[in-house]
Write a structure and sequence with these properties.
8 helices, about 0% strand, globular
Length: about 230
Amino acid sequence: MTKRQRKPAFASLTIRIIQYIAGFFVLTFGVVMILRSGLGAGAWDAAVANLAALLGITLGTASALINLTHMTVLIIFRKSLKYIGVLMPIAGLGLTIDFWNIIVFGPVDFTGVTLFVKLVMYGGGLMLLTFGLALIVHANFIASTVDELMLLVMDLLKTNKILLIRLAIEGAAVLLAIIFGLIAGIGFGAINIGTIIVTITLPPILAFQLYWVGNLLFQKEIRSDFNV
């Protein structure tokens, strides 16, 4: 992929680090909002939630286990130990998920909220999730493992069609979540109608977030790296 030059205001290493860390907090805030809405988690988040139920562990720990598996795949196919560096985003995701889910939202009872509030939480969570992902990817450090898998598949297929590749990856995660749920004896678990909606809508929303955040951070005269 073509590397673009950042605008001077966003070019410093300090700004990139702040952007990277902020991305994890924004992303996982969105994840937990969707989970707490009860309308169905996103594909990989449903896999994480169902694995947590299966093993009796926290969401953050389940996230780390899945992402460590992703890391192994990346190392094998990229033939590079540099992907051990994804241990940083793995830790970031795990810690921030548990921060929002246990410390911030843990004491809050969402059982009595109206459908309207749930829909607002769900929709807002989806926008925050994709915005956080865009911040992380455009920080130009190692992205989260799902994003690195997406980039790996794009490279292997020699395509920059992010929508189709992301959709395929999300579909695989839904299947994995169902398997975890059935083994755990909780049925589909965190899979609900909202999961289907996220799986279908996340790729185009993410592509849009990547586009406008990229235009904000990078020089406009260079074309976008991502095509829908």
